[in-house]
Specification:
Shape: elongated
Number of helices: 8
Strand order of the largest sheet: 4-5-7-6
Oligomer: single chain
Structural class: alpha+beta
Order of helices and strands: HEHHEEEHEEEEEHHHH
Helix content: 40-55%
């Protein structure tokens, strides 16, 4: 099949890519506009490309890549607790995005995924962390993980909450709260932290 080698080489550095990206690639390489469907059909069938959701693909058969299809996003809540070794439970991957998407559980790559939508003002507090090979993923820092559990009213045990709180930089935590939340959310954060101490 034409263009496959060039395609795989071009997209290997992209965690995910869209149908629009593929069409643009094919057009630039001289393919007819109707070639996209058969091209992608063959790549998907041969498992050289994997579908994440409608119109989004990856060369990697890895559930931790799927968040890029919901950019802007970061991994948080239970996924962050696992990353920081604050617990060792098997939980759904949690993707936090400011994109207008339907929140809730869905199955992607055969794994249960929890998509949480957050307001743009509360979309902060993450950094790119090494995942594997040359791939970096956005992960909530410990302070933002704590705040997100309160923001989303998500349950965690008192022990895990206390361990998370101990790992937090208190000045950074205070700055996050002061600069980024409404007075209603600030009040809930302070009340929750006080009640756990």
């Amino acid at each position: 099949m034409k263009y496959v080698k060039e395609f795989l080489n071009y997209f290997k550095s992209f965690p995910t890519f869209s149908a629009k990206d593929v069409k643009l690639f094919l057009r630039k390489n001289g393919a007819g506009k109707d070639y996209y469907k058969i091209f992608m059909h063959n790549l998907l069938n041969s498992k050289r490309v994997f579908s994440i959701k409608k119109g989004y693909y990856s060369l990697y058969d890895d559930p931790m890549i799927m968040g890029f299809a919901f950019s802007p996003f970061y991994y948080g809540l239970e996924t962050a607790l696992t990353y920081y070794k604050l617990w060792d439970y098997m939980t759904p991957i949690t993707i936090i995005t400011s994109k207008k998407v339907r929140s809730g559980f869905r199955t992607l790559y055969g794994r249960k995924v929890n998509i949480r939508r957050i307001s743009k003002s509360a979309f902060f507090g993450y950094s790119m962390v090494p995942y594997k090979d040359d791939i970096y993923v956005p992960m909530a820092d410990v302070e933002k993980t704590l705040l997100d559990f309160i923001y989303f009213n998500s349950d965690i045990s008192d022990d895990v909450f206390q361990n998370l709180l101990k790992k937090c930089n208190k000045k950074k935590l205070e700055t996050y709260v002061r600069k980024n939340y409404t007075s209603r959310i600030k009040r809930r954060i302070y009340v929750t932290i006080k009640s756990k101490n």
